[in-house]
Design brief:
Length: 510
């Protein structure tokens, strides 16, 4: 039976097996993954509790305590380009603190806004920062009301946010703008009533978010935001560590996008191994993206010629990437095989059977290494409030990063936020069931999943971590970025908040 800890389920069998044989000791329950413990549920309607659910309070409290960012950041810890400000995540934390304080007191909703701030941290804030804390506080209140299906008052709080939120303002204003859109979309889906949304700007942008892999916006972000390059160069080094000096190397890219990382791989192979006789790259493609994959292949073939590198590019056409069979890989016995999965497995979490089929197919070719780059966050909880809070902190961190890396009027930033991020937030916040396909899970959950398949994690070498640091030094925002070794994997983040992970794996053959 397929493991159920990747998708919506409150309990799972702690005795995971592989081919009917135990692969490890019994696992502990996944606390705080798909549900919040309800040990005090019987007291949830006491005369002292109103109007906010204890679930959201526990959630925000836990998130604040586990986040490594201190309430106050000294000037030495702030990026030089951000002196005089506090981060978006800190704004969110202060708003959450206020929300928690107010939620423990009886209130009618609107009178909450006139209550004085309880934390001494607020005395250090500027007028604009206090205004942004208030804005996020109203957003949290709106989300709480929507989560409790109090749509009328939730809509009023969203309208209040609309007085300040803007898609071209500060990171906080932009974040609140798109989350208001997502909440509004949820209200419309649940009620079926087209409620007008009063925001400073409101309209869909005519850009296909699924095309971000090869369009100018993706390339601009790749050049200005450090995370993609850090993970790619680290992943390339991990592959080089495993294929060694093999004369025939076969790379299998599950989701190739622009393929820019493979030019660096080609150069590295030529520099370290003059005897390489063939580099084969197999790229998955569906009918909707085959033209883009073909263009990527032509660019890589041209680059390989400049290096006099024997190179074969093969497109593996599939109606769905999970339908691949062992024979389609065309793996030769003398090839050193590596599989590269860049932010693609998370798109299959909502289709567990497809994800299992893909992993079974990869297992049959027994690659030397499987490189997995994923988003380091849990967006797969059954709890709406829990998902909303994770979205708030995760995307708040990204919006804060974009403020440093790109100008406010940058067209590519507008597309990234207004299409790609906005679509992701809307799907996580507003959709349920099969419609909710954005279901990222964190590294601990992936470890459970891969172990279920009889896989073991490979420790990243010192060279991998060195490459990651070397790439990071090329960006001006180095001091705000976080590189952290988590067990055997690498976690990349911004100002202490994890955003992405990179891990390497192999199958244990009996």
């Amino acid at each position: 039976m397929f493991p159920n800890f990747l998708y919506d389920q409150t309990d799972f069998n702690p005795f995971l097996t592989y081919d009917d044989h135990p692969v490890h000791e019994p696992l502990p329950p996944l606390v705080d993954f798909d549900h919040t413990p309800q040990s005090n549920a019987s007291n949830s309607k006491s005369k002292h509790s109103d109007p906010t659910s204890t679930t959201s309070l526990e959630l925000l409290t836990r998130y604040k305590s586990k986040n490594k960012i201190p309430t106050h950041v000294s000037n030495d810890e702030i990026d030089p380009e951000c002196v005089g400000t506090i981060s978006t995540v800190e704004i969110i934390k202060l708003a959450a603190e206020k929300f928690i304080n107010f939620s423990t007191q009886k209130s009618d909703g609107y009178t909450m806004f006139t209550h004085p701030y309880g934390s001494s941290a607020f005395t250090r804030l500027s007028v604009d920062e206090i205004r942004e804390v208030e804005l996020v506080f109203q957003l949290l209140t709106a989300a709480e009301r929507v989560g409790r299906k109090q749509f009328e008052i939730g809509s009023k709080f969203i309208s209040r946010c609309g007085w300040v939120a803007s898609d071209d303002g500060t990171p906080v204003e932009r974040l609140v703008y798109y989350l208001c859109e997502a909440l509004h979309h949820r209200i419309r889906k649940e009620t079926g009533i087209p409620v007008p949304l009063k925001l400073k700007k409101f309209g869909l942008k005519n850009e296909n978010p699924m095309a971000l892999g090869t369009n100018p916006t993706f390339l601009a972000c790749h050049q200005t935001i450090p995370f993609s390059q850090v993970l790619q160069f680290c992943g390339i080094q991990a592959i080089l560590d495993q294929v060694g000096t093999s004369s025939k190397v076969h790379l299998i890219d599950i989701h190739i996008r622009s393929g820019v990382q493979w030019t660096a791989m080609m150069q590295a192979l030529v520099d370290r191994n003059s005897e390489i006789t063939c580099l084969k790259l197999t790229a998955f493609a569906t009918s909707s993206d085959v033209k883009k994959v073909e263009e990527t292949g032509k660019r890589l073939e041209s680059f390989a010629k400049t290096l006099s590198l024997p190179f074969v590019f093969k497109i593996l056409m599939l109606s769905d990437i999970s339908e691949v069979q062992k024979e389609q890989f065309e793996v030769q016995d003398d090839e050193a095989v590596a599989v590269y999965c860049q932010v693609i497995l998370r798109t299959m979490v909502s289709r567990p059977q497809s994800l299992e089929n893909l992993m079974r197919a990869i297992q049959t070719i027994n690659p030397l290494v499987i490189v997995v780059s994923e988003v380091e966050v849990n967006h797969n909880s059954k709890s709406f409030v829990k998902r909303f809070t994770e979205v708030l902190f995760f995307y708040g961190t990204y919006f804060d990063c974009l403020e440093v890396c790109m100008s406010r009027d940058d067209a590519h930033r507008g597309i990234l936020e207004g299409v790609h991020f906005a679509d992701g937030m809307k799907n996580i916040v507003a959709d349920e069931g099969d419609e909710r396909i954005n279901r990222s899970v964190n590294m601990n959950t992936w470890r459970l999943f891969f172990t279920w398949f009889g896989m073991v994690e490979i420790a990243l070498s010192e060279s991998c971590v060195y490459q990651a640091n070397l790439v990071l030094q090329q960006f001006s925002c180095t001091s705000s970025c976080m590189l952290e070794v988590n067990g055997k994997c690498l976690v990349v983040g911004w100002k202490g908040t994890p955003l992405h992970s990179l891990s390497t794996w192999k199958f244990v053959q009996e």
